Each structure stands twice: as structure tokens, then as C-alpha cells.
């Protein structure tokens, strides 16, 4: 796919769109103007669970995974799920306590 410039451009457009969604879409008024908060920063919508799911599936399709390190936001989510006895298919991965910051890996698909 990466060798075809059209496919690469489409892939890049998907990634850019997903990134903008995850950052939060800009809130606009009826005239299309970006609304600002009292500090002058643009207002953004909170991404939905479906937005995050789309981004997660995109990363999975690219073979991108991340090892969970202690204290990271992902580790905190996993601990909350464990504490709440959340039931879901599969098993939560162990949390790496070595503290490696280079835990992000790209696996060959």
C-alpha cells in the first residue's frame, strides 16, 4: 500500500481525520465561526467512545501496539476495570513495572 501514492494519500487523510476527531472537533456557531472559551482557546467537543474505538481499530489494522507501563493512563484504566470487576471477553494484559518509555512498538503485519 505504501508504494502507491494514491493509497498513501488516502491513508494519510484517514489518519489526519482520526487525529482531529480524537483531539476533539471544533465547536462552531450557526454562522460557522469557531467558538472560544473565556481564555480565548477554541472550544472542542469531547470524543465519543465510538470515536476512540475507530482510532483503536485503525491502530490495530496498522499493527501498532503499546506495552502498558505502570502509572500510565492505560494502566490506570486497567486498574479501575480490575477494581470494578468489569466483565468483558478476554483478559487484561499485565502492567509492565520496568518503566520503559520506549514501550511503543510497531509490529510487522
Keywords:
2 strands, extended, 2 domains, disordered C terminus, two-stranded antiparallel sheet, 3 helices, 109 residues, mainly alpha
Describe this structure in words.
With 109 residues, the chain is mainly alpha-helical. It has two domains: 1-64, no CATH class; 66-101, no CATH class. Helices cover 39% and strands 6% of the residues. It has three helices and two strands, in the order H-H-E-H-E. It has helices at residues 5-23, 49-61, 73-83; strands at residues 64-66, 104-106. The chain has a two-stranded antiparallel ribbon with strand order 1-2. Helix 1 (5-23) packs antiparallel against helix 2. The longest helix is centred in the N-terminal third of the chain and has 19 residues, at 5-23. It is extended and about 50 Å long. It starts with a helix and ends with a strand. The model is unreliable at 101-109 (pLDDT under 50).
How would you concisely characterize the structure shown here?
This protein has 109 residues and is mostly helical. It is 39% helix and 6% strand.
Give the terminus-to-terminus CA distance: 12 Å
Number of helices: 3
Radius of gyration: 18 Å
Number of strands: 2
**What can be said about the biggest beta sheet?**
2 strands, antiparallel
Low-confidence stretches: 101-109
User: What class would the helix/strand composition place it in?
Assistant: mainly alpha
User: How much β-strand is present in the residues?
Assistant: 5-15%
Mean pLDDT: 78
What's the helical proportion of residues?
A: 25-40%
Indicate the overall shape.
Answer: extended
Order of helices and strands: HHEHE
Strand order of the largest sheet: 1-2
What is the count of structural domains? 2
Amino acid at each position: 500500500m505504501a508504494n502507491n501514492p494514491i493509497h498513501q494519500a488516502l491513508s494519510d487523510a484517514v489518519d489526519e481525520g482520526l487525529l482531529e476527531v480524537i483531539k476533539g472537533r471544533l465547536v462552531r456557531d450557526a454562522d460557522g465561526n469557531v467558538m472560544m472559551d473565556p481564555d480565548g482557546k477554541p472550544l472542542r467537543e469531547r470524543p465519543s467512545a465510538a470515536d476512540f474505538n475507530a482510532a483503536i481499530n485503525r491502530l490495530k489494522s496498522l499493527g501498532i501496539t503499546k506495552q502498558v507501563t505502570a502509572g500510565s493512563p492505560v494502566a490506570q484504566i486497567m486498574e479501575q476495570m480490575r477494581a470494578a470487576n468489569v466483565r468483558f471477553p478476554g483478559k487484561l494484559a499485565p502492567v509492565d513495572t520496568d518503566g520503559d518509555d520506549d514501550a511503543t512498538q510497531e509490529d510487522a503485519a
